[in-house]
């Protein structure tokens, strides 16, 4: 689920796909994986190893690959393997007949299987790119239309100190990046690569616009028009969200994207996605499962910091809906769940509420998430609402803070941001620790 209250419409076409099902397969162990934690060079990328060494983090069993022999045996049943998660020791498989899963379930190394997707009768997908006009207006302030959204968290002070995200890499995990490669206002953004975990053969620059707008809140660098919160950073654009349906398989896609980001050596992940209810209501989460370890994507979010990855995720937009609470993976541990305030610092009506089921304070922080400014698919500046935008706005500032303190582990950065919140002494279910003063967070880390 995309954590925004609305975004640009894109021309689509509708098809009737062949009926298929996807299942999450829980594997019993990694005994047959063929690798050892004593030899990480055999299965981890050099960049992933370097990040762990920088923070003095141990390589553990979660890093070991899923057994190739297990995957081969699953495929022999007729199931097609879509993706795997080594951190969770799971695989997602696609079948045309549900009975095929009986064969998979009987494999000795399979603990259990869970339905995570059932194809709909019809599927509506983007088909045509929006026309780009690049009509924008200049303002007096350097940050242009983005002035208030960076000043609310005092992020401009980090820029003034020389920290604008240079040398840092951010993975944006989202639902599509329509026209991000064509909009003049994003031409200066250093995009290192893209990957689609939903439909690998589909162009991420054709699919939904949401990820492009998120990217613009961080990476835009057009003085007097729109300057984001980390205009010097580099980016990978990873699509895990399926805008056409809502099923738990998107949580598996998210996990695969996070592990891919780890292999790329990224520093920060920003994700404006969240999950609580699905097209098949029998698969819905409950408030009791918001504990940071039950949902598969929440487990991955909770593990990321121990791999040296900083993760920020939108809290969600259910504050004025029956669900009310945060979604997954915002309930994760050792990561930042970001809620939304208005320009005056008061909470929006829609921002999702905490706490986590185990009593941890959620949200972790707040940033501007109403009447934010971002690029639209035609290259103009538009108004956008949602924790989808408070999250990347804060992400950019967090990235600049990490640039200033490259040897500080994610947990220490998170603690400083908590302590810099305007409600740190009295956190609540709506604001969490409140709006962080990012320069105060800088001073906290400097004085440690």
From TrEMBL:
Residues 165-434 form the Peptidase S8/S53 domain. The keyword Protease applies. The keyword Hydrolase applies. It comes from the Bacteria. InterPro entries: Pept_S8_subtilisin_bacteroid-2, Peptidase_S8/S53_dom, Peptidase_S8/S53_dom_sf, Peptidase_S8_subtilisin-like. Pfam families: Peptidase_S8. Keywords: Hydrolase, Protease, Serine protease. One of its GO terms (molecular function) is serine-type endopeptidase activity. GO terms for biological process: proteolysis. The active site is at residues 174, 210, 388. Belongs to the peptidase S8 family. This is Peptidase S8/S53 domain-containing protein.
